[in-house]
Recover the amino acids of this structure.
């Protein structure tokens, strides 16, 4: 059943905002961060109003309630990605921290000089820079699956790279620029057959389509709450229990320990071993509420709505002379349309759009190597989520014509 | 017309008077803004009194960065290098005639940064030059 977007939009207070008198907000930047439904805002406020306490080890009622709510959020997130158990869901700050956790613990405990890791040319900086840092520290060799002109991963080249015994394959489930959905299950199966561990950057894919870590077979999956209706400041690292058990801890401090002596400590059990210090408790509660909201809508419906939005956006954008959209056809991508307009810098596009209340992003979107690959320095990017309307695409198109008029 | 995109700015962007490269030149410097890919090169010729006789800029980028380079070169022809060293952020904003937020300010000030680094004979262009 298609989404009733108009009534669903009533759940998002910010979408009623006018950016200036008479100019309504047209929010086309959900790939950067999504807006939040009232249920998420209210869950976080209710937590602070009635339950707030630090979690674990407290005996009083507020501490017990807070601990229960925090752990219940973990259960919800685990179920959302069909993790075999909630102890395999580590709460982090965001996708970036989740990837860094793997780079600092699993990778530094496992990889030696000369070991190979495979990344792709379409990665976000968050799935590049942690590996650059590792490579320069440990002499690990980075290899890259090329992106084709169409904006897909070159799977033949991937198979060839896999014959060189890589230890890790780390790639994005969905590109934040091209929108490309990568074949996660197939790439994971091939990587495992070659003996590599698989980490998927799910920052874009988890919010946009049903994700089942057991069906996909991935070893690690990183994602952020704020890109799926939840608050900033909390993300997840899913990891296979046997891998997490063998990994050294990440940050040291309270909560991640079982016992501490002056000269030694014993790390705590999963998942607490990787959660040092007071975590983002209210944010976890908000994350749980966001997952509830998405479950209510249904991830199949979310994916279908985005598919419809991006098909319409590509159709409308491609009819504008001088506009070139990056990435594959609509059936192979999520709700992202990054584009260039001949003769106009993307910053100028975004700035003029802003005057009409249209929020689009301009720049390299933390994927500078991908832009270099396509021989451009920047793109303007419109992105969609469950609350996006075709009328907003129409506003975008009208905005582009306005830009063309100004730059005539 | 949108105030940020005054006709003046669009005009200097589309029909720059000082786009090019002087060879030979007495002063040359280039730099870029890696975040948005704006790039500017400035070449100048100066006379015996250390006055700017000719100037050109080359590069690519947004309307603000390219228009401010053109306006800036126009404003320094015939001026002593000592005066060029004294140019400030406000001088560029006055030339453009607009107010800018922090992100676009970097675009507007790239040309001034490049120009001053060249005139001072510095190895690199620092933000302190346009503070």
């Amino acid at each position: 059943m298609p989404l009733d977007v108009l009534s669903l939009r009533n759940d998002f207070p910010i979408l009623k905002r006018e950016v200036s008198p008479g100019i309504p907000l047209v929010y086309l930047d959900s790939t950067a961060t999504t807006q939040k439904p009232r249920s998420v805002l209210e869950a976080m406020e209710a937590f602070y109003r009635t339950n707030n306490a630090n979690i674990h080890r407290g005996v009083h009622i507020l501490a017990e309630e807070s601990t229960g709510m925090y752990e219940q959020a973990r259960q919800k997130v685990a179920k959302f990605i069909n993790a075999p158990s909630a102890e395999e869901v580590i709460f982090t700050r965001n996708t970036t921290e989740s990837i860094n956790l793997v780079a600092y613990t699993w990778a530094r405990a496992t990889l030696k000089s000369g070991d190979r890791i495979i990344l792709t040319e379409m990665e976000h900086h968050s799935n590049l820079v942690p590996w650059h840092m590792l490579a320069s520290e440990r002499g690990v060799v980075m290899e890259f699956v090329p992106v084709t002109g169409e904006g897909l991963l070159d799977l033949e080249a991937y198979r060839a790279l896999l014959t060189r015994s890589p230890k890790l394959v780390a790639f994005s489930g969905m590109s934040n620029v091209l929108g490309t959905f990568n074949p996660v299950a197939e790439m994971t199966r091939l990587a495992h057959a070659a003996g590599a561990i698989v980490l998927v950057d799910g920052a874009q894919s988890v919010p946009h389509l049903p994700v089942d870590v057991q069906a996909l077979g991935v070893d690690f999956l990183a994602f952020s709450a704020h890109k799926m209706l939840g608050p900033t400041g909390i993300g997840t690292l899913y990891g296979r229990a046997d891998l997490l058990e063998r990994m050294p801890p990440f940050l040291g401090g309270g909560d991640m320990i079982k016992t501490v002596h002056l000269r030694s400590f014993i790390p705590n059990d999963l998942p607490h071993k990787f959660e040092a210090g007071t975590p983002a408790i209210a944010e976890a509660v908000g994350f749980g509420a966001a997952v509830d909201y998405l479950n209510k809508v249904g991830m199949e419906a979310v994916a279908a709505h985005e598919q419809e939005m991006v098909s319409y956006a590509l159709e409308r954008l491609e009819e504008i002379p001088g506009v070139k959209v990056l990435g594959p056809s609509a059936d192979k991508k999520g709700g992202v349309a990054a584009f260039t307009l001949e003769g106009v810098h993307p910053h100028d596009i975004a700035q003029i759009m802003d005057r009409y209340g249209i929020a689009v992003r301009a720049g390299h979107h933390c994927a500078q190597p991908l832009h270099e690959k396509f021989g451009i320095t920047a793109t303007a990017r419109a992105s969609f989520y469950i609350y996006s309307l075709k009328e907003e695409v129409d506003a975008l198109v009208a905005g582009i014509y306005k830009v063309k008029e100004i730059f005539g | 017309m949108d105030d940020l995109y005054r006709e003046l700015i669009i005009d200097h962007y589309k029909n720059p008077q000082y786009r090019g490269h002087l060879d030979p030149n007495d002063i040359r410097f280039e730099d870029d803004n890696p975040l948005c890919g704006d790039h500017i090169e400035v070449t100048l010729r100066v006379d015996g009194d250390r006055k700017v006789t000719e100037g050109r800029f080359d590069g690519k980028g947004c309307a603000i960065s390219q228009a401010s380079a053109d306006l800036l070169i126009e404003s320094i022809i015939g001026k002593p290098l000592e005066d060029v060293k004294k140019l400030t952020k406000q001088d560029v904003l006055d030339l453009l005639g607009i107010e800018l937020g922090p992100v676009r300010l970097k675009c507007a000030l790239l040309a001034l940064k490049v120009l001053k680094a060249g005139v001072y004979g510095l190895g690199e262009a620092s933000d302190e030059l346009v503070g």
Remarks:
- The radius of gyration of chain B is 14 Å.
- Strands of chain B lie at 27-33, 38-46, 52-60.
- Chain B touches chain A at residues 1-2, 4-5, 10, 13-14, 34-38, 61-64, 103-104, 107 (CB under 8 Å).
